[in-house]
User: Which sequence fits this backbone?
């Protein structure tokens, strides 16, 4: 079942006695799970000795699942005391869970098979004590399990996972999904804010297709930048290259990499000067100050833009009676850059032109040539070359309408006489290379 919409991506549902019918209790030994009236932010779930499963009332239809839960900080008793998100629960002896150990403050990804649990990984999680809680997300795709850790009390961001690992076994049954409560204490209190579940696509996406142009063709050159020391709890390093030259682009170049790689290669324009700086992002979501900018001029010579390349298609060799209503627009945009300078940019080296071509009292054959050319250009879609009938200047233009209106002036012996107006507008000529990427899920994940 391929999910092509997000109708089953449930929002975080506050847990309270009022919505208890939305959940099923999975039976087991000794456990008792009870809703207790809580605040508007959370609910307290009381669980006696044992393992309790709070399953979402609508079980998944596929084995590829995503389960996300918010967990609040709270005072707990001693001993084993877990809360987390489970998936593929076949029964209380067979499931996968991402759980938080409240007493020891560690996170564990666990698979339970035949009642025997195996800790697959213990990813680090440092909750922010200034936050009321944190969020975790578990995804199981075929035999692969992925996990996300958000130390702050809001949705897990849509970004690559914090880690992944292979499961020991893959069940053919989707099972159930929901919230896990597990304790050896007789009177702890769990704090869970809500649950969100989603089925994942059960088919592999198309094979990747990457089309990239060589950076040197665009007059770029590699510049290696490094930092000497970073905080011990650095999660990511952010890099910036701020243009200095007035004729350069106004935007700052931004990049990000993992904290363990203290060098980065930035591709910048040859001959141009930049101020480069970096800062660290810690596991608590805090930023360090930016480093003092280092100025660098990229090796090489500034390259002028390529001369315009006119389209191959050319307007039919039919001279209009009038070239009317020439208008011009520079289309200048002003941007305040990160360097606090106003950068004025325009796609035009001169104002952009537009005209209306008027053909009066023309025979059907001539008008039909224009209409056939209009159809071939698909209206406004395709650019073509047009030569001004009096100045002989060449322009790259396109039709400035998706519909041409004909006016039949007279029905003569040699056919109808027709008048027609054709609006055209100048376009930017030349080509810009693009990078297109499609992603693929490894088919081996479904074996």
Assistant:
């Amino acid at each position: 079942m391929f999910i092509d919409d997000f109708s089953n991506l449930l929002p975080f549902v506050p847990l309270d006695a009022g919505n208890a019918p939305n959940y099923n209790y999975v039976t087991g030994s000794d456990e008792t799970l009870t809703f207790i009236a809580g605040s508007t932010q959370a609910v307290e779930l009381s669980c006696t000795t044992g393992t309790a499963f709070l399953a979402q009332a609508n079980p998944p239809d596929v084995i590829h699942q995503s389960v996300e839960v918010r967990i609040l900080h709270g005072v707990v008793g001693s001993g084993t005391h877990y809360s987390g998100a489970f998936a593929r629960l076949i029964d209380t002896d067979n499931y996968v869970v991402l759980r938080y150990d409240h007493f020891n403050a560690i996170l564990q990804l666990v698979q339970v098979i035949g009642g025997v649990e195996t800790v697959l990984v213990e990813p680090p999680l440092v909750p922010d004590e200034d936050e009321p809680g944190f969020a975790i997300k578990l995804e199981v795709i075929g035999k692969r399990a992925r996990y996300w850790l958000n130390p702050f009390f809001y949705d897990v961001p849509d970004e690559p996972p914090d880690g992944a690992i292979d499961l020991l076994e893959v069940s053919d049954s989707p099972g159930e999904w929901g919230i896990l409560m597990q304790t050896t204490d007789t009177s702890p209190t769990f704090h869970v804010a809500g649950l969100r579940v989603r089925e994942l696509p059960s088919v592999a996406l198309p094979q990747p297709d990457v089309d990239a142009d060589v950076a040197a063709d665009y007059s770029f050159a590699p510049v290696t930048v490094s930092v000497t020391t970073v905080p011990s709890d650095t999660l990511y390093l952010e890099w910036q290259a701020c243009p200095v030259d007035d004729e350069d682009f106004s935007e700052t170049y931004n990049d990000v990499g993992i904290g363990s790689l203290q060098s980065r290669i930035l591709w910048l324009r040859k001959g141009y000067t930049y101020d480069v700086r970096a800062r660290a992002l810690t596991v608590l979501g805090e930023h360090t100050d930016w480093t003092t900018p280092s100025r660098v001029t990229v090796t090489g010579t500034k390259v002028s833009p390529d001369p315009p390349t006119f389209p191959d298609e050319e307007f039919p060799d039919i001279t209009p009676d009038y070239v009317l209503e020439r208008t011009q627009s520079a289309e200048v945009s002003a941007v305040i850059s990160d360097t606090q300078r106003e950068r004025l940019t325009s796609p035009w080296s001169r104002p952009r032109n537009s005209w209306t071509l008027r053909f009066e009292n023309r025979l059907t054959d001539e008008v039909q040539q224009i209409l056939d050319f209009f159809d071939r250009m698909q209206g406004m879609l395709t650019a073509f070359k047009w030569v001004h009938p009096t100045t002989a200047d060449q322009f790259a233009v396109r039709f400035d309408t998706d519909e041409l209106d004909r006016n039949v002036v007279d029905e003569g012996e040699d056919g109808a006489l027709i008048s027609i107006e054709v609006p055209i507008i100048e376009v930017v000529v030349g080509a810009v290379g693009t990078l297109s990427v499609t992603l693929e899920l490894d088919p081996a994940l479904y074996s």
User: Anything to note?
Assistant: The CA atoms of residues 354 and 425 lie 4 Å apart. Residues 1-11, 431-437 have pLDDT under 50 and may be disordered. Helices lie at 364-376.
